[in-house]
């Protein structure tokens, strides 16, 4: 949460500087009585002097010279040329667009002017100097008619003006007590015009000591923060890019470090002397807004599970819009974006507080480090504002050191996250190594299994080859003698028909039937062995058309009635296989039927992924205990000479149905007919 505080510090610096007046208010009540002017007065005489001769100036004295300045709008007046000029107003130093007084209209942001102040200080004093704060304009300074310095270049147009912003310490002549201070300013880039902070009069030792301590504080803050930022940036790029919070924290530190450096010392303006100050200021504002984006993303990354997604979008888009406005808006409009930025940061601060409390109750212990850094940062922030401001010159060093401690705590948070992630990574590597070893063992086992499988495949190929040879032998070598035996029996019947008795004739007829039955059995075996090798291509056809072709080829007697499905359903299947199934089922229903009038009923229905077929008859039926046995090879419940059955037909049906991912079932009771149902996958 403290990630937001540094940005807020920079936005409140000017207001904080004005708070020094509270500590000097009592000291200047008497001085104010000695100033002979009114706030809205239009006349300012040459000899109007702020008399500080009765003031006691010591080695620790700092007197703000923020009132009684003659303000000459749209005039760049050099010393010695004020006699004929009338000031626009007599003012207190702050933004000239906000001067009070009804007599004249306040100036706009853009323009140029001259400030003039006459003071008288005591002769008996230590060596004193003037501290000129950073002015949001180009400025040119004289003291008692002597040109002291020019920051940038003061001009009357934007093209002539070169904006720069630096603070100065100007030593005053120890032999003089009256001083005329003349400051020319020109502003063509910022919404705040003129001198907005008090000019300080104090002992040179005090002012230089204060500035030295400010430099030390800046060295601590800028150096340490910059080092932390670049360390984590290198750490993210080269070593650990899995945690985005490291990148966001690095960007935050670098952005705040550059913002502090640019605000105090403007190094780019020194290195690139002719560079546009508007461009440099836009870079500074982008750095400020970038720190806000990085702080928000850092917070979101750490507490991703607790943050509402809408908040992430609103906060991120808010900062992105501000950054885009800085890029595209001209001066002075982009310099007015500090207020919405400050509001957005304060909302972030409040939401972070809520999320931190929620995370702590959710037992997220890494949030304790963030909470500690937030509390410490808030304490330092309030001390910075209310206690040490201007009261102790060492305070700024302590405060900046405190901020560095806060960022070191946040660094500890990141390193703790890295340590935990590294431990998890090591555990993952160990687990991966164990899995790799296990996989190696499984691979060896699989390799051995593959060897066994290859051997089995080799044996299977040999067996298939032998089976093919067997089929060839069955189809040629075995059937040929059967054909010859059948022919010889026929010849014997023909040659001896007149001499054969009835008993011999019966035996010869029975022999021929046995030979025919054996031939049919061989044909059925060949058909069964070729089922898996058949054509598997599917096509779309009408089921009733297939059944009509089948019935016409079977030459069924008129006494047989076959009822086809009422709906002529289009079926997507292997036509040859389905043909063989119905052929065997119909033949089986006719062969084993004991009725004079045979009735066969065929039905079909279509489900989401399969067809359901059924073939039922009015035959004798079979007992339930034989429902599974009928699908076994060579299974015959009734064997007689009149029935030419091989016992393989239903085994063929079962095998074809199984090949098409179907299930076959029987519904029958003895004497009540038989119904065979089977499914067929699309």
TrEMBL record:
<keyword id="KW-0472">Membrane</keyword>
<keyword id="KW-0812">Transmembrane</keyword>
<keyword id="KW-1133">Transmembrane helix</keyword>
<feature type="transmembrane region" description="Helical">
    <location>
        <begin position="395"/>
        <end position="415"/>
    </location>
</feature>
<dbReference type="InterPro" id="IPR036890">
    <property type="entry name" value="HATPase_C_sf"/>
</dbReference>
<feature type="transmembrane region" description="Helical">
    <location>
        <begin position="314"/>
        <end position="331"/>
    </location>
</feature>
<dbReference type="InterPro" id="IPR050351">
    <property type="entry name" value="BphY/WalK/GraS-like"/>
</dbReference>
<dbReference type="InterPro" id="IPR008979">
    <property type="entry name" value="Galactose-bd-like_sf"/>
</dbReference>
<feature type="transmembrane region" description="Helical">
    <location>
        <begin position="337"/>
        <end position="361"/>
    </location>
</feature>
<dbReference type="Pfam" id="PF02518">
    <property type="entry name" value="HATPase_c"/>
</dbReference>
<keyword id="KW-0597">Phosphoprotein</keyword>
<dbReference type="InterPro" id="IPR005467">
    <property type="entry name" value="His_kinase_dom"/>
</dbReference>
<dbReference type="GO" id="GO:0000156">
    <property type="term" value="F:phosphorelay response regulator activity"/>
</dbReference>
<keyword id="KW-0418">Kinase</keyword>
<feature type="transmembrane region" description="Helical">
    <location>
        <begin position="219"/>
        <end position="239"/>
    </location>
</feature>
<dbReference type="InterPro" id="IPR011623">
    <property type="entry name" value="7TMR_DISM_rcpt_extracell_dom1"/>
</dbReference>
<feature type="domain" description="Histidine kinase">
    <location>
        <begin position="473"/>
        <end position="682"/>
    </location>
</feature>
<protein>
    <recommendedName>
        <fullName>histidine kinase</fullName>
        <ecNumber>2.7.13.3</ecNumber>
    </recommendedName>
</protein>
<dbReference type="InterPro" id="IPR003594">
    <property type="entry name" value="HATPase_dom"/>
</dbReference>
<keyword id="KW-0808">Transferase</keyword>
<dbReference type="InterPro" id="IPR036097">
    <property type="entry name" value="HisK_dim/P_sf"/>
</dbReference>
<dbReference type="GO" id="GO:0000155">
    <property type="term" value="F:phosphorelay sensor kinase activity"/>
</dbReference>
<dbReference type="InterPro" id="IPR004358">
    <property type="entry name" value="Sig_transdc_His_kin-like_C"/>
</dbReference>
<dbReference type="Pfam" id="PF07695">
    <property type="entry name" value="7TMR-DISM_7TM"/>
</dbReference>
<dbReference type="GO" id="GO:0030295">
    <property type="term" value="F:protein kinase activator activity"/>
</dbReference>
<dbReference type="GO" id="GO:0007234">
    <property type="term" value="P:osmosensory signaling via phosphorelay pathway"/>
</dbReference>
<feature type="transmembrane region" description="Helical">
    <location>
        <begin position="285"/>
        <end position="307"/>
    </location>
</feature>
<feature type="transmembrane region" description="Helical">
    <location>
        <begin position="246"/>
        <end position="265"/>
    </location>
</feature>
<feature type="transmembrane region" description="Helical">
    <location>
        <begin position="368"/>
        <end position="389"/>
    </location>
</feature>
<dbReference type="InterPro" id="IPR003661">
    <property type="entry name" value="HisK_dim/P_dom"/>
</dbReference>
<dbReference type="Pfam" id="PF00512">
    <property type="entry name" value="HisKA"/>
</dbReference>
């Amino acid at each position: 949460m403290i990630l937001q505080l540094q940005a807020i510090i920079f936005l409140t610096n000017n207001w904080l500087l004005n708070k020094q007046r509270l500590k000097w208010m009592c000291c200047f009540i008497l001085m104010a009585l000695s100033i002979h002017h009114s706030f809205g007065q239009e006349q300012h005489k040459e000899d109007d002097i702020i008399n500080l001769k009765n003031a006691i100036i010591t080695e620790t004295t700092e007197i703000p010279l923020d009132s009684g300045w003659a303000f000459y709008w749209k005039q760049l007046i050099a010393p010695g040329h004020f006699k004929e000029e009338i000031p626009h107003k007599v003012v207190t130093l702050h933004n000239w667009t906000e001067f009070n007084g009804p007599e004249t209209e306040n100036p706009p942001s853009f323009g140029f002017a001259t400030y003039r102040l006459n003071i008288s200080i005591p002769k008996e004093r230590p060596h004193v100097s003037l501290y000129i704060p950073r002015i949001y304009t180009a400025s040119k300074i004289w003291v008692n008619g002597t040109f002291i310095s020019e920051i940038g270049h003061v001009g009357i147009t934007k093209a002539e003006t070169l904006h720069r912003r630096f603070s100065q310490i100007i030593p005053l002549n120890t032999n003089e007590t009256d001083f005329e201070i003349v400051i020319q300013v020109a502003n063509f880039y910022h919404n705040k015009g003129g001198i907005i902070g008090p000019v300080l009069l104090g002992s040179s030792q005090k002012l230089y000591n204060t500035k030295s301590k400010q430099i030390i504080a800046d060295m601590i803050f800028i150096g340490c923060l910059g080092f932390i930022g670049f360390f984590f940036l290198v750490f993210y790029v080269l070593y650990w890019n899995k945690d985005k919070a490291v990148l966001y924290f690095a960007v935050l530190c670098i952005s705040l470090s550059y913002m502090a450096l640019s605000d105090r010392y403007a190094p780019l303006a020194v290195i690139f002397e002719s560079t546009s100050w508007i461009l440099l200021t836009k870079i500074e504002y982008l750095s400020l807004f970038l720190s806000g984006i990085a702080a928000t993303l850092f917070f979101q990354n750490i507490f991703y599970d607790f943050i509402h997604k809408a908040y992430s979008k609103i906060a991120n888009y808010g900062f992105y819009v501000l950054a885009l406005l800085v890029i595209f808006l001209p001066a002075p409009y982009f310099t007015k974006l500090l207020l919405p930025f400050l509001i957005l940061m304060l909302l972030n601060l409040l939401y972070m507080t809520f999320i931190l409390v929620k995370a702590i109750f959710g037992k997220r212990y890494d949030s304790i480090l963030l909470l500690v850094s937030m509390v410490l940062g808030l304490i330092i922030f309030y001390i910075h504002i209310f206690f040490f401001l201007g009261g102790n010159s060492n305070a700024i060093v302590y405060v900046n050191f405190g901020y560095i401690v806060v960022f070191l705590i946040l660094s500890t948070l990141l390193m703790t996250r890295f340590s935990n992630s590294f431990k998890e990574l090591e555990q993952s590597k160990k687990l991966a190594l164990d899995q790799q070893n296990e996989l190696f063992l499984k691979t060896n086992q699989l390799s051995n299994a593959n060897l066994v499988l290859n051997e089995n495949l080799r044996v299977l190929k040999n067996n298939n080859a032998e089976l093919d040879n067997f089929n060839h032998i069955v189809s040629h070598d075995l059937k040929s003698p059967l054909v010859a035996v059948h022919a010889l029996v026929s010849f014997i019947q023909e040659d001896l028909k007149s001499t054969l008795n009835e008993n011999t004739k019966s035996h010869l007829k029975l022999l021929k039937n046995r030979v025919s039955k054996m031939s049919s059995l061989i044909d059925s075996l060949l058909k069964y062995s070729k089922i898996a090798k058949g054509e598997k291509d599917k096509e779309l056809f009408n089921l009733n058309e297939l059944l009509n072709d089948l019935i016409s080829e079977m030459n069924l007697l008129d006494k047989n009635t076959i009822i086809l499905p009422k709906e002529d359903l289009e079926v997507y299947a292997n036509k040859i296989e389905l043909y063989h199934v119905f052929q065997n089922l119909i033949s089986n229903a006719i062969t084993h039927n004991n009725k004079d009038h045979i009735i066969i009923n065929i039905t079909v229905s279509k489900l989401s992924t399969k067809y359901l077929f059924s073939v039922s008859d009015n035959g004798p039926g079979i007992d339930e205990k034989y429902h599974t046995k009928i699908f076994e090879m060579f299974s015959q419940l009734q064997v007689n000479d009149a029935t030419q059955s091989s016992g393989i037909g239903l085994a063929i049906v079962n095998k074809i149905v199984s090949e098409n991912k179907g299930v076959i079932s029987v519904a029958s009771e003895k004497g009540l007919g038989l119904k065979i149902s089977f499914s067929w996958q699309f």
